[in-house]
Amino acid sequence: MTKSALKDALQNSFNGLAQQTHSLTEQQFFAPIGEKWSVAENILHLTQSVKALNQGLALPKQVLVQQFGTIERPAFDYDGVVAAYLAVLSTGAVAKGIYVPTLPENPSKEMLLESFVKHHNILAGFLDDWSEQELDEICIRHPVLKLLTIREIYYFMHYHIEHHKKAIMKGL
Length: 172
Prior knowledge:
The protein has helices at 3-22, 26-30, 39-57, 61-68, 78-89, 109-126, 132-137, 150-171, and strands at 139-142, 146-149. By secondary structure, it is mainly alpha-helical. The chain has one domain: Four Helix Bundle (Hemerythrin (Met), subunit A), CATH 1.20.120. The longest helix is centred in the C-terminal third of the chain and has 22 residues, at 150-171. It starts with a helix and ends with a helix.
């Protein structure tokens, strides 16, 4: 996927989820989905994930190169990233640490959705700073998938939204 197509897909994904969940009542938004996270917790988890990535992408590219080196395997396409993530999930991997959503005191749907969109827009904007070649050469660490190229981490972020959107819509 080209940088332009990737940016469009990412923006469509997070804006679509925000629009779909904006129409929910506060009660629907904060109610658990069976034994699973509520819509609010899913949105917060996605926001926490993107905020952590944005911190990494804000570093100078040379710092990423020094810290993570390069990928010693063929690059994954979108489907390859998804397959790798689903394989890790099938082993029982779950969110840990900063990625476990803990709602703040007196949260509002508006506040959570505004933060979600804001931080995903920042992520989309970072794509403008990368050449097509750099997207495939420079790496960053993912908590469970380990080293991914920048393009692969964007593929993951797009899929991650879709993964949680599916869980949310299944429960509504």
